[in-house]
Inverse folding.
């Protein structure tokens, strides 16, 4: 099995230059110590047969305010996937002082297991919170759900909602220009790039002038991952998400296991809550 380490120094340098804070910029850093965890997840699927990996995703956010101030934030998240399709991801839930007064991160961990047909979540970092692992079972698709008689008014309302959503999607496609950026090498892994430019006409969202939103995605078919994604939206700022570190091969099995001192609370398909130690 091939193993490797992916990092994109050129991209990292470009991001560092682009996001270098100006005088007066407001720098928002993650908690000191521990693993900083980002809030955007790209490309972690649960399909079996896709290449296993363990990685660190870096999210860089930059927003310049009308008064000249700027917000700059960098967070990191751990992600993993094994050859059976199990996935693990950590997400930041903020920071709070610990018993020693030092800030520490509050993490939410999610593990999806298509083999066991379960999804587990638990929280890490808050001392006073219950140490609980919530286990959700996938629905049994072989058992058809009982259908209640459809109310005509409710059905008509659902059709209106669906038609409105379809109209919005069609309008958005008309506002989009999709470009093929070709291929790019991320330290030995080839990714295909696309850039979507959406121009929102003046007045559509109360805007005096057209708004241009650019989304750039670099996807590796070999790894089944988006190795880099950039979203530049004048309404919300610019976010760059990239794999700062990517180790190919089977991850440590412990990444998919909750802490031993946590109590397991299961939510079976019948909706009755059960607990297990």
């Amino acid at each position: 099995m091939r193993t490797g380490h992916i990092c994109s120094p050129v991209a990292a340098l470009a991001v560092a230059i682009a996001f270098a804070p100006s005088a007066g910029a407001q720098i928002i850093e993650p908690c000191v110590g521990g693993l900083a965890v980002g809030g955007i997840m790209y490309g972690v699927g649960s399909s079996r047969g896709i290449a296993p990996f363990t990685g660190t995703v870096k999210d860089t956010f930059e927003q310049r305010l009308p008064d000249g101030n700027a917000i700059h934030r960098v967070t990191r998240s751990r992600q993993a996937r094994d050859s059976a399709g199990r996935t693990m991801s950590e997400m930041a839930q903020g920071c709070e002082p610990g018993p020693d007064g030092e800030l520490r991160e509050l993490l939410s961990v999610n593990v999806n297991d298509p083999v066991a047909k379960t999804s587990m979540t638990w929280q890490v970092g808050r001392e006073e919170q219950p140490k609980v692992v919530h286990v959700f079972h996938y629905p049994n698709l072989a058992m058809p759900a009982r259908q209640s008689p459809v109310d005509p008014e409710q059905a008509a309302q659902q059709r209106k909602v669906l038609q409105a959503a379809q109209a919005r999607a069609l309008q958005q496609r008309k506002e989009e220009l999709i470009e093929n950026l070709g291929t790019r090498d991320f330290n030995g892994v080839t990714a295909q790039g696309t850039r979507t430019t959406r121009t929102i006409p003046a007045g559509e969202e109360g805007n005096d002038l057209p708004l241009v939103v650019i989304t750039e995605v670099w996807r590796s078919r070999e790894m089944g991952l988006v190795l880099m994604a950039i979203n530049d939206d004048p309404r919300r700022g610019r976010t760059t998400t990239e794999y700062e570190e990517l180790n190919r091969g089977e991850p440590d099995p412990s990444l998919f296991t909750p802490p031993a001192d946590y109590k397991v609370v299961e939510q079976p398909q019948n909706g009755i809550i059960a607990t297990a130690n």
Observations:
- The helical segments are 9-18, 152-174.
- Residues 1-30, 32-48, 271-277 have pLDDT under 50 and may be disordered.
- Residues 5-139+236-276 form one domain.
